[in-house]
Amino acid sequence: MKQESKTSLLLGAAFLMATSAIGPGFLTQTTHFTEQLAASFGFVILASIIIDMGAQLNIWRIIAIAERPAQDIANSLLPGLGYFLAFLIVAGGLAFNIGNIAGAGLGTNVLFGVSPELGAFLSGIVAVAIFLVREAGKVMDRFAQIAGFIMIGLTIYVMFSAKPPVAEAALRTVAPDTIDFLAIITLVGGTVGGYITFAGGHRLLDAGVKGKESLRYVNQSSISAIGIASIMRIFLFLAALGVVAAGTTLNPDNPPASVFQAAAGNIGYKIFGVIMWAAAVTSVVGAAYTSVSFIRTFSKTIEKYHKSFIVGFIVVSTLVFVSVGKPVKILILVGSLNGLILPIALGVMLLAAHKSRIVGNYKHPLWMTVFGGLIVIAMAYMGGVSLIEGIPKLF
């Protein structure tokens, strides 16, 4: 593989994962918790980045070494475990995709004044079209890259317009006034929870980036993916903090739109429409691709017609949105529940990393095993605390 095409592929996988994470839920969760925690939300972002890095590095490396997708690794570890993991991932992916489709409808509503339902329908067509072209993988990679750069660039503009208290944010990032477990698990769930952390790993595997000789590239792409998502999170947090610090009350029905409009007026509101649409459609693409990648090895029929299953996944998500809708609280809830999938998925992958029948003579670094194990314990604990204490507060 030429160096130029390999670089493009690695960036494509990184942006697929990052833009899968940056969806309507990502925008809503970030602004919601910034309003709640103010500058102390910086600590939540820092904690989530550390957890994200440890989780994703472990998972992507193990997929590359095993040279097979996560569900097959899990089934090799314990027969039936892969089907259980696939069920969790696909169910979470479908739930998120309903919100993603809804976000696309909201973005077109802001930009063109069409109904969210019509906007969602048209956006669904765009997502479907990506998978119907001959070079679907390359188109998906390039679409994710372009949309990612646009989202980050526009958010930087709005952040500067909001004039955030950067010094206060920096201080509270290392010395927070309060620590919120629900916020941490929701951010981790929205960045590497559920299907999201597997999006880039399975994309690299699909493109033939696997084996020991590819670990350097896998590490590079994995860290880049978390970096891209984290940059977007930080800029969005600072934009929201600037608006909140100025005394503006965010609209609970659409917190991120309030931030962009308060920071940059009607131009900001239109920028929000572009970002919401781009974030939503790239997340639709990532969720559909990754969710189907978890079932395509179970059946020769699914493998042969996997593009049709991806299209069907998008169509079902669109139809459910038209029937049900997307409350802000449900997006936050789904993010936190997706975070509960992470300790299960990561725990399975760490056990597999030490089974020679799965990874051969590969020796997984001790520090990565320990780091990953601590993340499993921490996420399971925070998830339990959030379920018992935090989530009921949303309702």
TrEMBL record:
Q: What is this protein called?
A: Divalent metal cation transporter
- Keyword GTP-binding part of the UniProt annotation: no
Does Transmembrane helix count among this protein's keywords?
A: yes
A Pfam entry, by short name:
Nramp
Primary location: membrane
| Subcellular location, record wording | Membrane
> Which controlled-vocabulary keywords does the entry list?
Membrane, Transmembrane, Transmembrane helix
Q: Which InterPro entries match?
A: NRAMP_fam
Record membrane topology: Multi-pass membrane protein
Transmembrane ranges?
37-55, 76-98, 110-131, 143-161, 181-201, 222-247, 267-295, 307-324, 330-353, 365-388
